[in-house]
Amino acid sequence: MRLSNLRLSWNIFFVFLFVIVLCVVVVGEFALHSLHDSYLDAQKDGLRSIAQLARRDVGMTPADPALIVQQIAADAGARITIVLPDGRVVADSEENPARMENHANRSEVQAALRGRVEPAIRFSHTLNTDMLYLAVPLEQGGKVIAVVRAARPLSEIQQRETAVRLTLWRGCILGALIAALVSLYLAKRISRPIERIRRAAERYAAGDYSNRIYMTRPPEYVELAKSMNRMAREMDRRLHEITRQRNERDAILAGMREGLLAVDRDERIVLINPAAGEMLGITPADAVGHLVQETLRNPELQRFVTHALAAESNAADEILLHWPGGKMVLAASSPLKNGDGAHAGLLLVLNDVTRLRRLENLRREFVANVSHELRTPITSIKGFIETLRDGALSDPEAGPRFLEIIARQADRLNAIIEDLLALSRIEREAERHAIELFPCELKPLLEHTILQFAPQADAREMKLELECPEKLSVRANAQLLEQAVSNLIDNAIKYSQPGKSVRVAAEAGEHVSIRVIDEGVGIPAEHLPRIFERFYRVDPARSREAGGTGLGLAIVKHIVQAHGGRIDVESKPGIGSTFTIVI
Ligand code: ADP
After folding, report:
1. Which helix (DSSP H) or strand (DSSP E) does residue 146 occupy?
2. How far, in Å, is the centroid of ligand 1 from the Cα of 508?
3. Which residue has better confidence, 39 or 381?
4. 1-192 and 256-352 agree in CATH topology
5. Over 90: is that where the pLDDT of 560 sits?
6. What is the phi/psi pair of residue 75, to 5°?
7. Ligand 1 centroid to 573 CA: how many Å?
8. Which CATH class, in words, describes the domain spanning 256-352?
9. What pLDDT digit, counting tens, does each position of 96-126 carry?
10. Does 521 contact ligand 1 (Cβ within 6 A)?
């Protein structure tokens, strides 16, 4: 295991132990070394004194040198040897000189013979131990007659050194114990604040920036805690800022009516707003991160995205989405660039142009219808004028009849144009909310309307009846409401056989309803949904014959809508129809 992988307390412990052991060993070794030197010096000094004493005794006493060396050796606790200059041993305190070999080659003896004192350390085979030898010359009349040597075993020094080494080891063990205790204490002191900072950092990592670290010492940790707190505050601020910006962006995207779609270079959807989701029939949250090919099920749109990505330029196309409900969408794309200006994908804006296109179609259809409606009477007028020019004018019978037809066709043209103008005025005013509604009493209004149709009804021997409670009031534009009811009564008379009756009934409930009931030809069910369209006629010939423009019910519908109401119809062919205005 590497030291760096250990817990901090163990790290500190091992460092302490190492330092203490190193110190003890190095200092101990130095101490041992100098102790050894001083022991050795003391021994040398001692041996020199002994050797010198022995030399004096041997030089002054005529007694047997063997006895003298025995005595000195016993007193001094050292081995004494006397060697002749030729190396022969004369006396030795430990051994029989006769059995001893020639000592001429011993370095201490050679040094003494040269007049010098040089100690020597050697293994003694005689005593079977390391010995310190020191020899001095014995001179007589300026001549060396013998060498006195003193020697002591070194085991004593070695024993003392062993004792000191033992003490050193004890010191090491004690040091290790102290290191453990001190490191434990230090580790606690150092690691406790680190642990607190670590826990705080973990909470920051989990996104909780509310936590603050408070520390009073040591200064380094106080500074670190301050920096961490500053960082947390800054992160918190930035996070809030990012969240605010994201919420703003989401609100803008959600509020957009245009569909917005961001796609990266790999055709993966990065962003999609709710409007786009609705247009494409997909859930935005599920689409993000998925490929265009697997999410947008419209092959045309997929192709558009692929081409726009490859082109890296603006593109626009109208695309028909077959789901949901066959929408027409205008797709416009612009390339997306990242910070370095590199191509990062594309932004797709989708505009639902279904209504626009439908309105355009309606307008086109309407223009065609109007042209067709106008052309019929104009063709007829032109034809009769030609005939008159060609001589019919002078015909007393045909002339006035043709003129009568021309006048009728001109009336018809006028009626169509009047109705068209009325329709466009109502539409325009309704769009501008310019139609003013006032409370008006219904009974007088309906009576007045019916009265206008009296001649028409009389001519066809039809009865017009009114049922309306007194004081029934409705908020309406009287003129427009009268026009709507007029159109309904007009139709009821037109599409009934002579002798039938038409009933106008008004009643109050949750809403006010005005019914126009006839006993006329009725309308087949398949036509009912379309009769309020402009120029829609169930029986075009009959309508024209009766002087209809095909716009009457369209006008009624617009007037009722401008009042915030609705128009219903119930009809049975051969039995009659009931039109109900509900306001
Ligand atoms: P028109 O000028 O042709 O009457 P309208 O818009 O008023 O045009 O009516 C549209 C068509 O609805 C008429 O052509 C007619 O076929 C049918 N219609 C309207 N009112 C009645 C009714 N009361 N009875 C039978 N058919 C009717």
Report:
1. strand 143-153
2. 27
3. 381
4. yes
5. yes
6. -70, -45
7. 13
8. alpha beta
9. 888 888 988 999 999 999 888 899 999 877 7
10. yes
Domain 358-431 coded CATH 1.10.287.130: yes
Q: What is the rounded distance in angstroms from the CA atom of residue 12 to the CA atom of residue 412?
A: 112
Query: Beta partners for 351?
Result: 330
By alpha-carbon position, which residue is closest to atom 19 of ligand 1? Answer: 491
* Cα-to-centroid distance, 553 and ligand 1 (Å): 7
Would you list the domain boundaries of the chain? Answer: 1-192, 256-352, 358-431, 438-582
Question: How much is the pTM?
Answer: 0.54
User: Which of 546-568 are b and which e, b meaning 16 or more Cβ less than 10 Å from the residue's Cβ?
Assistant: eebbbbbbbbbbbbbebbebebe
Nearest to 88 by CA among 72, 105, 71: 105
State the distance from the centre of ligand 1 to the C-alpha of 416, rounded, in angstroms: 15
Dihedral pair phi/psi, residue 500, rounded to 5°: -80, 170
**Ligand 1 atom 4: the closest Cα is on which residue?**
548
- The residue whose CA is least distant from atom 20 of ligand 1 is 491
The atom of ligand 1 lying closest to the CA of 522 is 25
Q: What is the pLDDT of residue 272?
A: 93
| Percentage of the chain lying above the pLDDT 90 cut | 45
Per the structure block, which two tokens stand in for 358? 């439908």
pLDDT in tens, 347-370: 999 988 888 888 898 889 889 989
- What gap in Å lies between CA 80 and CA 76, rounded to an integer? 9
Best residue for ligand 1 mutational test, from 491, 527, 542, 567 (most atoms within 8 Å of Cβ): 491
Class of 438-582 in CATH: alpha beta
The residue whose C-alpha atom lies closest to atom 16 belonging to ligand 1 is 538
Answer whether 548 contacts ligand 1 (Cβ < 6 A). Answer: yes
For residue 489, the CA-to-ligand 1 centroid distance in Å is 11
Superfamily of domain 1-192: PAS domain (3.30.450.20)
* Cα 552 to averaged position of ligand 1 atoms, centre (Å): 7
- CA 76 from chain centre, in angstroms, equals 96
Measured CA to CA, the distance from residue 117 to residue 381 in angstroms comes to 165
Q: Do 151 and 134 contact (CB within 8 A), yes or no?
A: yes
